[in-house]
């Protein structure tokens, strides 16, 4: 079946994309190397990518702090010898992080080995973020190449933190990740997504707030930061390449997890924008998994979506919406309706949960203290070396 990744054109060159990887690595290393007696200043994170690159080259920090490497493709250079995209998605997708403390000066050096597959697919699946934000649109009108570089670097910063959370906090690395499939994979990803959002915000010089108050100007800036992060479909591509040969039930369960992850991610960023960061998010479906009589979709859950935020459980009263917009035989109109209903349901669940959590924050000093201590503890755990 021909559903191969198509690289007939790219929005930026491989050279520009490689510079985005370095930009993202600089932000991550500054955060890891700032603080008492360290060689970076946290205020550098308020600079744009180009200015931060200048600071690094003026102080000769590139070789001290970052290495960006491309792993050689495995066996055989001739296209015909290559593994299928399904195998590549499974086994040749993830790059490798190494964090090494080095002396003179004392520092944490970060190495990222990208794979050929990730480098190519992430460039092919880069897209302009769907935004109504005037500043974002002006940025693309002024200089497309630089705008794509800015959004791609932002995407990579979050991706890098996600991986560093797997590595430093969860002890899941490129060698053992196959041991943590199934629920372990999904749940470790929920945690990594939320913490990556927290560290994305810090990587651009913003403070993480937990008490539920935020100035309108800061709110706007943070919304923009998360909005431009939605600029790459590389993981959707990977899922597409891997999902060949799934049964109907597997496919349904996969959609369930994706629905949960989308809620968790949207909830995480919305709470951060509102100044109400949480360190604990979980999404559950109550009730039972049931087979549907005569329906082409086959299955449904009989209960509601329940959300857990910083240990408190909230019943949203909303049912999961798991119709498949990619099902065979649907008209374009029906597909588009399904996507609209899906987004609306995610939004409804997110809004309800944010309202309930922020209202609890206002009335509960214990919750406010817990929220801020938990963020501090996690920052310490992740940034310490
Ligand atoms: Zn992950």
> Number of helical runs?
13
Distance between the termini: 48 Å
Oligomer: single chain
Using the CA coordinates, give the radius of gyration. 21 Å
Number of domains: 2
Structural class: mainly alpha
Question: Can you put this structure into words, describing what you see?
Answer:
Helices cover 54% and strands 10% of the residues. The strands form three sheets. Strands 1-3-2 form a three-stranded mixed beta sheet. A three-stranded antiparallel beta sheet has the order 4-7-8. Helix 1 packs across helix 2. The protein is globular, with a radius of gyration of 21 Å. Zinc ion binds next to helix 7 and helix 8.
List the helices and strands and how they pair.
Layout: H1 14-32, H2 49-58, H3 62-65, E1 66-70, H4 85-91, E2 96-102, E3 107-114, H5 116-124, H6 134-142, H7 144-169, H8 182-203, H9 216-229, H10 234-242, H11 248-273, E4 281-285, E5 289-291, E6 299-301, E7 305-309, E8 312-315, H12 332-363, H13 365-383
Parallel strand pairs: 1-3
Antiparallel strand pairs: 2-3, 4-7, 5-6, 7-8
This protein binds zinc ion (ZN).
Concise account of the structure shown:
The chain has helices at residues 14-32, 49-58, 62-65, 85-91, 116-124, 134-142, 144-169, 182-203, 216-229, 234-242, 248-273, 332-363, 365-383; strands at residues 66-70, 96-102, 107-114, 281-285, 289-291, 299-301, 305-309, 312-315. It is mainly alpha-helical and 385 residues long.
